[in-house]
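Recap slide: Rhodopsin domain-containing protein, sequence and predicted structure.
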Amino acid sequence: MVDFLRDLTIQTWVMYGIAVVLVFARIESRRIVEGSLKRLWIEEYLMLFVLVFLTANSWTILEVAKNGSNYVYLSTPDVARNLGAVERRQTIYGSKMTMVLEYLTLTILWTVKITLCLMFYRLTNGLPALHKLVKLVAVFCVVAYLLIIILFTTKWCRPFEGYWALPVQQDQCATYYHHLIFATAWNISADVMLLTIPFRIIPGLQLPMRRKVLLLCVLGLGVFNILAAILNRYYNFSAHPDSVEFLKWYVGEFGTAVYVVNVPACWPLLRKILPGGADTRAHSSNTQFNSYQMHPSALTRRVLSESEEDLTSVVHHGKDVDDWSRRSTHVSRGTPVSIDDHTIMPGNAIIKTVGVQQHATSRE
């Protein structure tokens, strides 16, 4: 047990540390793109909210491992009745922490899903069918979360105090089996729906196959959410009553969810850190220009991180994207330079938002 607790502690705080790095990398990436921390999007605030819950979750899961729960005494009610005062108090405390752990984990997982919905909502703006699908998935996620929480609180274990009762009065108050099956079904269903969205967008993009594959890999990371959820439930249901081995998979599930939602948003920071990543070569003029030296007030629209730029350039123009992406942009004065998705004039003023691989020329 000592070795398990040590291993779980290391795993929990390592995964927590990685999650913290990714969340703040996401925030820094948004600052790079927007030019100011005051211009964070709602997704970044949701991730800060998740980080608070993740901190509580990491501490709670270790408390459960240290103290156990009434699940240990599910098949031995006589032993539970004869526990000493200290052991009884410890078991009740562990049972309460197990219940808190479930609330925290559910909130983290479903907040991550809403954050993904917001990202896909922006990416599908201009594609009515997919835009509507994203809205429906978002509604599904909100309804699912509320329904799972309500049933966990009012349905599966009655009275509510049964969650920490000794001895156990109802099996579901200790095993959570009905709750876990119900929650997992909704959880995986939402993940599958979210996973289908990028696979419906990306194949139609006018991009080299290599970039399509890269985008699919980045935006398709949700498959790991599904895998983590399945493994968590498998080890949970197959665990011996006196084992807390399944807690490692709780850590794996909520850790994976936080990684998946933040990795796609970290590309601007990676481009800045990696050698040569801060400079982007103009497509037609071979002129190098730092795409992040633009003054934020010159932006005519917000832009997404590099992993989202190709998608954004397409979905904002609907059915005319093929013609739009090939078009050259002419301006009446100055010498524009095409950088990423923008035409930049001397003095760092953006004249027109243009598409990826457009050619900018001047007209006297």
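Residues 278-364 have pLDDT under 50 and may be disordered.
Residues 85-123 form the longest helix (39 residues).
(End of recap.)
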